[in-house]
Amino acid sequence: MNKNESRLRRAKSTRAHIRELAVHRLSVHRTGQHLYAQVFAPNGTVVAAASTVQKSVADGLKSKKNVEAATTVGRIVAERAKAAGVESVAFDRSGFRYHGRIKALADAAREAGLKF
Fold this sequence. Notes:
With 116 residues, the protein is an alpha+beta fold. The chain has four helices and four strands, in the order αβββααβα. It starts with a helix and ends in a 5-residue tail after the last helix. This is one of the proteins that bind and probably mediate the attachment of the 5S RNA into the large ribosomal subunit, where it forms part of the central protuberance.
């Protein structure tokens, strides 16, 4: 089993539990170069999204792969979700450890008013 398969195996139980709860899900994916965040409705449609690939998000960032960029993505995805009428979500870290960029994104989303 390689690194990505292990991560997806860890993410599977979290996603199954969130599916049972039938709540909105804030899903995070990180690569070496970028960070992506999406809010999914219980039926699987994307309600809000933000990533460092988007020019509007990346403007003004020194780097697209650090904690500062993760904080910006978290704040923007929370603002977009609230504009779409989503107040609370379940956090899906996609099998990544809750530290560094993942933690910074979650903390920024909480500070922007998203409850989870």
